[in-house]
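Here is a typical protein record:
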Amino acid sequence: MIAASEPTQRPPQARLLVVDCQGRIAHARRSALAEFLRPGDLLIANDAATLPASLRGVHLPTGASIEVRLAGRRSLAPEDVGFSAVVFGEGDFHMRTEDRPAPPIVSPGDTLALGPLQAGVERLLGHPRLVSLRFDGSADTVWSGLARHGRPIQYAHVPTPLALWDVWAPIAGLPAAFEPPSAGFALDWQTLANIRSRGAAFATITHAAGISSTGDAALDRLLPFDESYRISEATAAAIAAARSRGERIIAIGTTVVRSLEHAAIPGGVRSGHGLATGRIGAASQLSVVDAILSGTHEPGTSHYELLRAFTGDATLRHATEELDARAYRTHEFGDSVLIERSCFSAALL
């Protein structure tokens, strides 16, 4: 696999690797997604719009330049402006995260000047660079300051600065994600029409997708962080109806898998707000989601670990070999995979 270097969400040449429940692999254009659907399938996408969650600023106790990347909050309520965040030292997205210098030592009570905003460090969250922040001012002041000063979180494989609209999927609604729920980049209005004409259905949830890399191995092992979500009554009802008919639930993105599996109840999912915790991996037994449309992920990442809940390691190794051999593009602006839960795993439920 190679990293996608163009900030284009839906390149016309985007490709799709398909793994069926027996581990068989096929290759197609991503625009042909609907051809791999069945009448009655229910596709669920994350409609969260991406926040400008990268904030340049100064650590006031030392005067050192820093970057703060917002990484989570406890709920999606607009008045909730308490954030967890990862602190970086000098540099910007042109440097690989693992090459960024460490920030100054950050302690509870420190003040960070972040453009028009000031934030106080409330506490450390199990790592010297992972902190809980309290912004000064009202919720309106905080959201206005983020809009004026923040930029999308960005990584070195995309060399040109991203605009906010570069990281919004066509279905983006509530600004809630810290990095783009990029599986949704596979969607456009023609694809949605094709899904409907295939006899499949479509619904959404809202999930505050978190950051994908911190540049620190110990901190990366904590990923994904806890992520807030909301499932509407209409989506929960659609899932229950599909489950009762024995139809497939297809998650568009790893965030959707986290939400639906965290909210699982017998016969479907509960509606309302929740906080997805824990990590989904090879030992997880999926109870809601039957297949996933996702980006191409590298072994060792938390996203790749989640794919291990769908199919065996031998199949994933074969898929990775195919991705590498055919130079599929990876990362958020890359190509896609569609992986159906293995027939053997499904038979155990």
Notes: The first helix runs from residue 139 to 149. The two ends are 34 Å apart (CA to CA). The mean pLDDT is 94. The chain is about 20% helix and 30% strand.
